[in-house]
Amino acid sequence: MLEIQLIGNLGKDPEARYTQDGVFVCTFSVAVTHKDETTWVDVTAWRELGERCHQYLAKGRQVFVRGLPAVEAFVRKNGEPGAALKVTAQSVQFLGKKPENGLAEADEPGNT
Q1: Do 14 and 53 touch, CB atoms closer than 8 A?
Q2: pTM above the 0.70 mark?
Q3: Mean pLDDT in the chain?
Q4: Among 31, 33, 58, 67, which residue's Cβ finds the most Cβ atoms within 10 Å?
């Protein structure tokens, strides 16, 4: 099994939904910067992990994500081929400054 670990910042607030089977899923994109180059990674968190991510994460928040990677090929609007790195999160650790939402420090789990 191939596993990936990344640290980056959320590019926008997480989005959440339920599947047709009633399973909670949260998605968010993480900007990972290395040597002045930024790679965007689409992260999906399921069930309880997804619920915690949706509750506590916000745009700009730094996270450490550990999960299973996949590459998805697509065609850009201009017709050129492209690829996206996607990760199914196994764990998400909240780093850096928390969002300004009034939560007490004890209310926020450090590692999910």
Answers
A1: yes
A2: yes
A3: 89
A4: 67
